[in-house]
Specification:
The complex is a heterodimer of chains A (93) and B (157).
Chain A: H1 4-16, H2 37-51, H3 57-65, H4 72-75, H5 77-92
Helix pairs in contact in A: 1-2, 1-5
Chain B: E1 11-16, E2 21-27, H1 34-37, H2 47-65, E3 71-82, E4 91-101, E5 105-114, E6 117-129, H3 134-146
Antiparallel strand pairs in B: 1-2, 2-4, 3-6, 4-5, 5-6
Classes of the chains: A mainly alpha (93), B alpha+beta (157).
Chain lengths: 93, 157
């Protein structure tokens, strides 16, 4: 079974037409990979479907906009995958 | 339908919150200024208005599920297929099914049939945001009543 990162990287590569080898756990989805907000919706839809979750994008965006957290926490892929794992675990609990 | 006012939907004929689906009815008018240009001597419902019809049908579904607490705005149309010409006077039935209720977005699969034959389909994505002002929300509620949206869907979740 592929890791969360492998699945997410595959989704981003396919959805945003980004070479897979440019996508690493340290990549920032927006700053490094240049994913815009509409493409990120596609990515979010594919992630939600793949993992059976509902990523709280609105809450994350609000927290970033209000300066409560750095955008890295949600948009650096390693951190994004950790958040996905938490959502999957919460759903299974 | 009043094409020049983007009033694509005449009536919501079925709305099933459990199945997360909606069906609407739309009668293409016999006359419209739109047909003067599309096309002279050969009037056809423009494909972009078929897409708009599917987008509005899915939009009513999202509005109903959210009890008009937020507004869906069209942001993406995927795999749109316009399968046959639609002429003045044709009766259309549009359907939409919610594929995903995401955080700040929603995705539906929508289609249009006429006389039992599929004429268009697409996957449509909306960005779902708070109403930008009270005027729009009031107008959407008024329009919802005009198209026979069941009253139960117009108020609080």
């Amino acid at each position: 079974m592929p890791s969360t990162f492998e699945t997410v990287a595959g989704i981003i590569s396919e959805t945003c037409d980004i070479p897979r080898d440019k996508i690493t756990p340290a990549s920032h989805a927006i700053n490094d990979l240049g994913i815009d907000s509409l493409d990120f919706l596609d990515v979010a839809f594919a992630i939600d479907k793949a993992f059976g979750i509902k990523m709280p994008l609105e809450q994350w965006t609000q927290e970033v906009n209000e300066g409560k957290v750095a955008s890295d926490q949600y948009f650096v892929l390693g951190d994004l995958c950790a958040n996905i794992d938490k959502l999957v675990a919460a759903k299974a609990a | 339908m009043r094409l020049e006012y983007f009033q694509m939907i005449d009536r919501i004929s079925a709305l099933d919150p459990e199945a997360r689906s909606v069906r609407t009815e739309c009668a293409v008018p016999l006359e419209s200024p739109v047909f003067e240009g599309h096309f002279p001597g050969y009037p056809l419902l423009p494909g972009v208005l078929m897409i708009e019809t599917m987008a509005q049908t899915g939009g009513w579904l999202v509005l109903a599920i959210l009890r008009f607490s937020r507004m869906p705005f069209l942001v993406q149309v995927k795999e749109a297929k316009l399968r046959s010409f639609v002429e003045p006077g044709q009766a259309l039935v549009a359907e939409a099914r919610l594929l995903h209720d995401g955080s700040g977005y929603a995705v539906v699969a929508a289609g249009i049939e006429s006389a039992g034959r599929k004429v268009a389909d697409a996957e449509i994505t909306y960005r779902v945001v708070p109403f930008p002002n009270a005027t729009l929300r009031a107008e959407m509620l008024a329009t919802a009543r005009r198209v026979a949206m069941p009253e139960a869907f117009l108020h609080g979740e």
